[in-house]
Specification:
3-stranded antiparallel beta sheet
Length: 131
Amino acid sequence: MNDKRRRRTLVVDESTTYVWTVRHRHGDGRPCQEVLTLHRDGVRTHIVFQAGEGRYVGSVAYGHSGGVGDRHHHLNLNRPGVVRALVDEAVNRELLPLEGELNGWELFTTVALSQSAGATPEVPPDCPQGP
């Protein structure tokens, strides 16, 4: 199996483990898609991000395989922290477990905002205000 489709394990807690893969697909005249597939206890869920107006997937322009985004945010589906955030958000919305497909864009904004907030350090209290 090539590196892009390798199986990885995400341990959520003592009783919840997912095996996950990321792949790019097209076909049947549909736009390109990035697909995060989660396997747990015999249930296979595909979180699908389909290219569309203002949304990109995969290696378009300066993107990369596993990259999805819009005009404001970007997620790398190859990063375990991003996958964990998508799983957590889907569970919070009671969308998992599900046999079938989920529209990844429904989870995208919430996860992208949580990922960018976690990456932004707090401003030190003695720092002067910016412009």
